[in-house]
Amino acid sequence: METINKQSSPKKLLHGVRPSRIIYPILIGLAVVVYMLVKEVDANTFSLIEFTWYTIFWLCIALFMMVIRDLGYMARLRILTDRKFSWGKAFRIIMLWEFTSAITPSAIGGTSVAILYLNKEGLKVGRSSAVVMSTSFLDELYFIIMFPLLILLLNVKQLFMIESPEHSIWLDSLLYFALGGYLVKLVYLIVLTYGLFWNPRGLKWLLLWIFKLPVLRKWKHGANKAGSDIIESSKELRRKPFLFWFKAFMATFWSWTARYWVVNAMLLAFMLEGYGFADHIMIFARQLVMWIMMLVSPTPGGSGFSEWVFTQYLGDFLPTAGLAASMALIWRLISYYPYLFIGVYLLPRWIKKHFKNNKS
Question: Which residues cross the membrane (predicted)?
């Protein structure tokens, strides 16, 4: 098995997460927001925004939701590593992991570099792979459980409808896109579960067989490494008791739920009246659909695309398109940009600590 301990591998992995790369998602996101603001904002837009103590309170709640999200991720990391990491070390790893995800396309994420982070912080490569794959398993499990539950609670047509100034648009294509994304996630979860807990060598064989196809052949080496990681991970994970997985899933549940509650808190901050319990559940559910769309964004961290989707899909809950564009910017300022700047501060120091006198 090729490990990340070879000299060229860490350099290759870290090449794509240079701190200087934060400029790209910032520029893309701001360009889209500025375009929408110039296009949609008029003299009446900001008259709709009234900053009061109520506004400040709910904005603080939105920030607190991000703290809960990160604490959940940190708690999950400590659970999955049998508390090998302190809270401080868990914080550093999660911030670096989020930074990596923020500057790479959403479909790529920070998985490969996350294994490196864990390995350099003291876990063996096999254990690091097991932890990263466990987080992937738990994240997908949350979505697979929550999405159908929300569908049962809500009016499906309302979930996939956007109110335009002229008429309501029933987005059949969006419904099919969401269902298609859900099925892809479900298949991925089933295959990952099968490989991690029952037949890891069989899954590796399947991966290598798939990547023999001419269009995929150039990624065969990566598929072989992924298969080896799955075999190593399986040895670690099959021994874990139910309580271990329950605690890890609860940490995952609170992390993802807090992530989505950020928008609910923001809307409460600026729209004092008119939202009932059903509206908040609808906003929550629409964010799950948004997450499917953001996964296919080719831009780093979904920059630009995320802001646009926010204005289009959650704009129904705001009185004007200009206000929706303003809210999209506030949303990203709370939930995305902090990880860029924290990562810029932490990553150079982390690299200096682990690679300055380390030739591995």
Answer: 21-39, 51-72, 93-118, 141-162, 174-197, 317-347
Over residues 15-33, the mean pLDDT reads 67
Domain locations along the chain: 8-355
User: And the tokens for 326?
Assistant: 């303003």
- Whether residue 262 contacts residue 62, with contact meaning beta carbons closer than 8 Å, is answered with yes
79: number of CA atoms within 13 Å, CB side? 22
Backbone angles phi, psi at 346, to 5 degrees: -80, -40
HSE on the CB side for 348, CA within 13 Å? 8
CA distance 200 to 228: 9
Q: What are the counts of helices (DSSP H) followed by strands (DSSP E) for the chain?
A: 15, 2
CB atoms within 10 A of CB 115: 23
What is the tens place of the pLDDT at every residue in 156-193? Answer: 777 777 655 444 555 556 677 778 878 888 988 888 88
Q: Torsions phi, psi of 320, nearest 5?
A: -140, 155
**Which residues have C-beta within 8 Å of that of residue 275, sequence separation ≥ 6?**
267, 268, 317
End-to-end CA distance of the chain: 16
What is the phi/psi pair of residue 162, to 5°?
-120, 130
More reliable by pLDDT, 341 or 212: 341
Q: In this structure, are residues 253 and 143 in contact, taking their beta carbons and an 8 Å threshold?
A: no
Residue 299, pLDDT score: 66
Q: What share of the chain is helix, strand, coil (3-state, %, to 5)?
A: 75, 0, 20
Handedness of CA 103, 104, 107, 112 (dihedral sign): negative
